[in-house]
Write a structure and sequence with these properties.
Low-confidence stretches: 75-79
CATH superfamily of the largest domain: Histidine kinase-like ATPase, C-terminal domain
Strand content: 15-25%
Radius of gyration: 52 Å
Mean pLDDT: 79
Number of domains: 3
Helix content: 40-55%
Order of helices and strands: HHHEEHEEEHHHHEHEEHEEHEE
Shape: rod-shaped
Largest sheet: 5 strands, antiparallel
CATH topology of the largest domain: Heat Shock Protein 90
Structural class: alpha+beta
Strand order of the largest sheet: 2-1-5-4-3
CATH architecture of the largest domain: 2-Layer Sandwich
Distance between the termini: 57 Å
Number of strands: 12
Amino acid sequence: MRRVVRRFTALPIRTRLSLLVAAAVAFAVAAVSVTAWFIVRGKLYDEIDSDLRGVNGPVEAGTINSVLGDCDSSPSRQNIFGPPSDYYLQLVKADGTACALDNSAGVVRVTGRDTEVAENPAPDTEVYRNGTDSEGKPVRVLTVPVVLAGPGRSLVEGHALVIAYPLESTQSTLDELALLLLVVSGIGVVGAGIAGLAVARAGLRPVDKLTAAVEHVARTEDLSVRIPVEDESEDEIARLSRSFNSMTASLATSREVQQQLIADAGHELRTPLTSLRTNIELLTRSEETGRPIPAPDRKALLASVKAQMTELAALIGDLQTLSRSDAGTPPDRVQVVPLRDIVEAALRRARLRGPELTITADVHPWFVRAEPTALERAIVNILDNAVKFSPEGGTIDVALTDGLLTVRDHGPGVPADELPHVFDRFWRSPSARALPGSGLGLSIVARTVQEAGGEVTLGPAEGGGTVAAIRLPGAPTLPPALD
């Protein structure tokens, strides 16, 4: 059975639907045909039984006594109900002896049900059954007590009257009906299979389109393929098609972002790598030619190599952070964290990087759901950006109130035409190209804040400088379930 199920499930959906439709129709047609055959059979038997009841009737006492006497002496044909007919007419004794009448069509084989009626005759007793005559032909049999004519309508003890009618024509009719129903059922099943196949083809045509689109994407990696879907359609196929279109659109966007990231990363990596190669070639040439580089120049050259390596390491770290952000934050890393503690930790790092600056802080408790490490790095990037552009001896104001973190510096500010690009990857202001950095810091900030369900903005501050604002959803107190 399991093997049959496995083979069936291995068939194409179209074939399975056709077979299921054909099987369902076959079952329904078979049930209707069998029911119809039994109903017709019952109706025909009812008509025959009615005719048998019409033949039965009371018998004159003198006639029956004469017949019984003749049957007791010799079971021969006697006449009670008129001229010969197509009916079988015979008397049955309690011992099973049959006495056929002169007008009987033949002799019916006696059964125990007939002798029971003869042994215990009762008024209005009628026993119907199917039987056979002496030649083995099928007959419909009615066995009743022998009723004497007269006011008392008394019964004759020890005898029963058997009336039967041949069933050859009836069975022939039933056989023809069975054959007709079988032919009609076969035609119905075949037609149902054809109709099921047509319906399956029509119903699965959108699935075929979806399959072809998926196979095309798998074969060519062309993510521009879209499946046409009617706007008003809300069936499962339409929803699946919309989901596929949304998936391919997201994959195409992700690929474009990835390709752009690779291209931008290659461009940004080229500068420090070129500088490193040049400096290392100078050092190598000096060693190979035996012409030592003056000590001050050698020291500056090594300092440049170290700076370029530091810049390269920072760039690689930023790229790894962005790649993890693109892949999504694992749910097990997201937790409820105190934003004030993270801001204070970031402030300590910022004060080490800008000891000549004055950094003021007014932070209040606020709890958010985020990845702690990523969130701290984002806040550090915001503070590093403020430290980088603040003048020597300048002030940086940091405030955290009701989930709004603001970092305001007093530097030169960002031109209005550059504000739309500050969160783009690898974008750097022309005035800041000489400063250290990869152009990925604010991109990391934007991605981290977005994953935490917040938003970040950067704009000019009143009186000069720049103010960065990060708003994160949360609560001022730790939820009781997590406290």
